[in-house]
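#random but structural
TW: two for the price of one
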Amino acid sequence: MIGDSQAQAKFIGDVLKLITGTSFIVIGIVVLVVAAIRRRAAGARAVFLLGLWSAIYGLQRFNDCDFFVELLPHWMQLCIPYSHAVITYFTLVAAAMTFRELTVGKLRLFVTLQALTALLIAVVGIGRFVLTGEEYSLLGLNNLVAAVGAVVLLIVFMVPSLSRQYLVVKDRRVMLVGTIIFGAEALSTNILHPLGYHPDAIWDDLGFFIFIGSLGYVAMRQVYTSERRLSSIENELAIARQLQFAILPTSTPALHNLRIAAVYEPMTAVAGDFYEYLPLDDQRAGFLVADVSGHGVPAALIASMIKVATQSVADHAADPTEFLRRLGEVLSGQLRGQFVSAAYLWIDTESRVARYSAAGHPPLLVWRAAEGALARIESNGPLFGTPCVPDFPTREISFQPADRFLLYTDGLSEPENAAGEAFGDHRIERILREYPSRPAAELSLLLLDAVRAWPPPSTPQQDDITFLIIDVL
């Protein structure tokens, strides 16, 4: 009779282990899938580690179920002790890494050290088991590390001032309830086990279930809050992109005997490149191309400043040296550690003379149709934002019908292929030589396509690309 009761109790215990093990594995898989879908959101790593922890916990329940083990093939039964040892030791590692994602400051450092300690214990403990057959030789030390960590985390969660200082949890009350229940259960288990007292596993399962429920709720709140914030930022960037395009020329100036093509390809939603036309009449105009160091919003803000600064010095458009000097003066107090390169070209189609000057910018390329040759015009002063003396020498360039000018930023020449080789100025020059008779608009597309095709297909654009092609008819 007693034997039947024991067998019945054991059978019920095995069934409960199968149910709880299956439940925690399914929960873990679902959480891992959610983490994979939301992998770019803040808090996704905590969700992933929670799913991993839940799956490991469920596997341990299957290992503890004698009924399940007996159904396995013999070779798999031989692996159960090893599986049991690995899961037992690595459960603490998964737990510590999960908690680490919720902490900051000194507490994050403490939990990181706890995770590394648990990992070291796991490696040594599993190694000793493989070599000596002692499955739980370091389990006492493992339990001690777990108990110390549980005490520290309980104290932090229960003291509001410590929670605000060391945790990134928004719903502290929800997390507090789950942590207290799980921490108390884990603490009692790690203290009572070495004393030979083994509480019913159902209490472990219940405590862990409440805990992952609270932790999952908090982690998913962080994920969705992050996504809402990201969505808001993306909407704001879309507006910023529209505003930035609004400061660029909406059309090319109608100039006698000139045809102009402009290409502007930002790397991100907003860019640090800028170009502007400064027409005086139908035969004279200035062309400015600028490149702000860095990318994104800070560079875009400075690019917007260049628009305003350019308009303020437009009276000096016919003198590239004075134009760049005054432009640098206007920008000098606004750059705040960033640098700007610029190239400025003034073209007079009546006299057939162009004037060019630059501030730390790639050279102006000039295709001379009559000679069938390409000239590199370098007339550089210092970058805007450097403490150097602002000296911007001007080069005068005579031109003839069918000649061509190319102003560009370094985003056109710097893309690299799979071997790390830059597209380079020489490839830009080769395209200009190969298609001397193509119209400016068509040539701009050929050049852009060649640059886009140079990096590997999966490589995102690494810099803003801006260039102007100016053809003399």
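TW: number two ↓
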Amino acid sequence: MNDLTALIERARVAFRASAAAEPALTLRGGAALDSYDTPPAHEPELDQASDAYLETYLPLLIDYALRHLGEPGSMLTEALLWSLRPPDREPPRLGSLSAEQEAVIVAVLDVLAFDARSLDRELAMQVLEEYWVPGALYRKQPPP
């Protein structure tokens, strides 16, 4: 198993319980909130995680981003990176991630920022600096 395949599997394991549960907020709902609209209720048929759903709402696209590392022409990896930028609401949309889920996100961002094949290095480095590294520019730090 290569490093990217192992990271994809680690992401699947880290997010398995979350993916199996009915979401408190769907990707459609997140898109609505990001547009300052009221989020719609979960509808299994509409919110099935199909390729079309992912392409429409551009959520956690770790698997896609890593499998297509270095391939030009897709906006999906860029959309993943934009979705990982600092949240602009309270509570932050990324605030419910577990420590392992955050570690997976950082590992994915490290690949996208520092792997020579990545076409998204600059944006990935910006995202890391803004929210994901220790002392990030826009992440509230816990009190000492």
